[in-house]
Backbone:
């Protein structure tokens, strides 16, 4: 399993949404609830021993200023754990309940379960990176995580990721809604217009979304050898529906579905490596 999200030193990455100390910390009750949700150790003595072991690791890492191969190994493990946990929770919708329990609710009108795996991937990666940033700065360097605080290092980190999630998600949701509105206006303007007229003006696109989209495409598309599928995936990543992406690539919607289905098994391992990163800085 690859060791880092998006490759490189995760600790050097800063979140695209402003984050602060409040994003990093849950109350003792919230941490206890999260511990149970994560299936953490329930025996008090075992839990205390685990937290003390975590404290030993933290002090060892502190002696090296939270840098170097040992620290990166810990960060990579947390990143992988956070990524897979959040992917599961975003797929089920559980993440919205967790965010509400953490005191960072997503407005009801912005909650959706109709987002694509690619959408969830982008939101989860940025949430984990945001969680890593505040976790290191406040939880570790400023010693806000303590072994007597009631939570293991893993639980405290997941708490930071959950609290980073709403800002990242809302930024994605608002950008996605703007793009859909632009596409709807284009279709309403001329139903018989050439499909090229549906291409949004990139000069007016949100810079953050454009940067994330370009970076994602640069790393995903080389794995896909079918040129029509490559093109369709590009349009999908830019916010187009599967139907319009297929049309733009010269395929029917059903044909695109069949081709992408055949790709899934073959690309599963490569995509997993892409999602967790293998080289290159974010």
Residues:
């Amino acid at each position: 399993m690859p060791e880092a999200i998006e490759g490189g030193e995760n600790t050097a990455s800063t979140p695209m949404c402003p984050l602060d100390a409040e994003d990093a910390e849950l109350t003792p009750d919230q941490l206890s609830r999260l511990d149970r949700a994560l299936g953490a150790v329930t025996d008090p003595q075992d839990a205390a021993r685990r937290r003390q072991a975590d404290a030993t690791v933290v002090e060892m890492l502190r002696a090296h200023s939270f840098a170097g191969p040992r620290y990166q190994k810990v960060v990579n493990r947390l990143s992988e754990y956070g990524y897979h946990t959040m992917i599961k929770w975003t797929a089920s919708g559980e993440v919205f309940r967790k965010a509400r329990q953490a005191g960072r609710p997503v407005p009801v009108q912005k909650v959706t379960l109709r987002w694509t795996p690619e959408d969830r991937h982008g939101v989860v990666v940025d949430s984990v990176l945001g969680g890593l940033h505040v976790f290191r700065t406040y939880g570790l360097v400023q010693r806000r995580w303590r072994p007597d605080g009631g939570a293991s290092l893993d639980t405290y980190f997941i708490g930071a990721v959950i609290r980073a999630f709403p800002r990242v998600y809302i930024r994605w949701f608002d950008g996605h809604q703007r793009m859909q509105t632009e596409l709807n206006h284009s279709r309403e303007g001329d139903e018989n217009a050439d499909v090229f007229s549906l291409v949004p003006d990139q000069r007016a696109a949100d810079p953050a979304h454009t940067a994330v989209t370009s970076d994602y495409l640069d790393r995903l598309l080389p794995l896909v050898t079918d040129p029509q599928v490559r093109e369709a995936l590009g349009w999908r990543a830019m916010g187009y529906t599967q139907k319009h992406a297929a049309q733009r690539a010269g395929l029917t919607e059903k044909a695109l579905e069949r081709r992408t289905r055949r790709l899934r098994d073959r690309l599963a391992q490569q995509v997993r490596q892409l999602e967790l990163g293998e080289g290159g800085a974010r």
Q: What stands out?
A: The chain has eleven helices and no strands.
